[in-house]
Amino acid sequence: MASSLLLNSCLMSKHFDAIIIGTGQAGPSLAERFVVAGLTVAIIERHKFGGTCVNTGCIPTKTLVASAYAAQVARRGAEYGFTVNGDVRVDMKRVKARKDQISGRSNKGVEERLRGLENCTVIQGHARFQSSRTVMVNDDVLEADKIFINVGGRASVPPIRGINDVPFLTNSSMMDVDFLPKHLVIAGGSYVGLEFAQMYRRFGSEVTIIEMGPRLIGREDEDVSQAVREILEGEGIQIRLSAKCISLAKHDGRISVGLECDEGPREVLGTHVLLAVGRNPNTNDLGLDRAGVATDQRGYIIVDDELQTNVAGIWALGDCNGRGAFTHTAYNDYEIVADNLLNSDHRRVSDRIQTYALFTDPPLGRCGMTEAEIRKSGRAALLAKYPMSKVSRAFEKGETQGFMKICVDAETKQILGAAILGTGGDEVVHVLLDVMYAKAPYTVVQRAMHIHPTVAEYLPTVLSKLEPLV
Questions:
Q1: Domains and their CATH numbers in the chain
Q2: From the candidates 15, 251, 272, 452, which is the catalytic residue?
């Protein structure tokens, strides 16, 4: 008892106006906004500054995608009127070094930005709640009336038979790869898995995708899924769908992936396995129970429409709240919370329109509802679909795969959703997204004059072909 009392007497609490746990996309901007408003802030990071996006997500993977794209264009040189002497040979150590330099610059930038803020105390260590107003980090007890959780997520490792018997990779450990896997087997046919599949195929690996569902990227419309599959298969990627009872085992220096599919052999032999089967929130070791913060069955922190938890004075932002798994949704979480607290605004998560991209080549830009969701809703709608092969800019670039699809409400004339699968699709989709936020009719875009030659200039053409969705 005496030693316990002595310990408690040594742990003097430090009071702040706000405590932020995590330095992902929401945390640093929130800290900066609070400091400008005259508040004292403590921000805590237990690993790498910048979170997933900076270290193992958007920035490093899109850097790798860029290297893979350059290699692919070089291979197609003859189509563009030039030749490359000999085969295109990818030096993975140099590819990784470029990725590390770009990612490291962002990581360092986040840390320097935070440490340069006045009235912002940066603490490195593992934060755990002691109560709804106190957090312990290392040997420090921090206290604040407002606490913000921005701890992100990590790759899910499912209980596959044999998972503990073989080495495997995740999106995080892939960042350490500086060699070319001879045969990369990817478990998971969704966004992360497909991006890695295409980039490593272009680097020179044999690649097989194994997906438990009946098609790739199951949340997308069937025509989008099928088009993406054709693009990947056209580059030599093997795809196994409806894979059940997946198992892993060592086999003569390789890894045997056992599966049951409607078609094809029941074993795939690879040299390396990448698990890309979802994400889990980093909430299991924060002591949330001591603060009384509620989570759902998967560990996501339950928040309301303004991102407040069930405990007054505690908010959850970014991937850990289950309200979006993207950098842009995390940043938008920050904007919602900051505006509501500092500007007495009433911004809500439900006001934002779902939008994201799949960064394969060509990319998929998505916003709003899918065609399937619109059909399920039963609302009267109009639809137009236009092949990228008829878009002059795509034809000039020699990148004619994909299509544009736009859905419109038949009564209000407002755009309900769109899928732009094609060159520039990840940028073009924002033209439609902005009009959707303005709640303006599609005729605003249809009657606009766009620059030629661009991909966006074809949006009026696509919208002129709207027909009833039957």
A1: 12-153+281-351 (3.50.50.60), 173-277 (3.50.50.60), 355-468 (3.30.390.30)
A2: 452
d(CA 456, CA 27): 34
User: Known catalytic residue: 430?
Assistant: no
Cα 367 to Cα 440: distance, rounded to the nearest angstrom: 15
pLDDT digits (tens, 9 = 90+) for 326-351: 999 999 999 999 999 999 999 999 99
Alpha-carbon dihedral sign for residues 146, 152, 158, 159: negative
Give the span between the Cα atoms of 255 and 210, in whole angstroms: 14
Residue 74 is encoded by which pair of tokens? 């070089």
Q: Which two tokens stand for residue 2?
A: 């005496």
Residue with tokens 């809703």: 377
Torsion of CA 102, 107, 110, 111, to 10 degrees: -140
Task: Tell me how far apart the alpha carbons of residues 147 and 5 are, in angstroms, rounded to a whole number.
Answer: 27
Residue in the structure block whose two tokens are 């949340």: 219
Greatest Cα pair distance in the chain: 82
pTM over 0.85: yes
Nearest CA to 228 among 244, 211, 245? 211
User: What stretches of 48-191 adopt beta strand conformation (E)?
Assistant: 120-124, 127-129, 134-137, 140-149, 153-155, 183-187
Q: How many other CB atoms are there within 10 angstroms of residue 16's CB atom?
A: 22
Element (H, E) at 374: helix 371-377
Per-residue tokens: 42 = 């403590």
Q: Express each pLDDT in 79-107 by its tens digit.
A: 999 988 888 999 999 999 999 999 999 99
Strands in 206-210's sheet, in edge-to-edge order, are 238-240, 206-210, 183-187, 272-275
Strands of the 355-358 sheet, one edge to the other: 355-358, 364-368, 415-421, 403-409, 381-387, 467-468
- Name residue 53's amino acid: C
Alpha carbons 211 and 190: distance in angstroms, whole number:
8
100-104 long-range Cβ contacts below 8 angstroms, 24+ apart: 100/60, 102/59, 102/60, 102/63, 103/54, 103/55, 103/59, 103/60, 103/63, 103/175
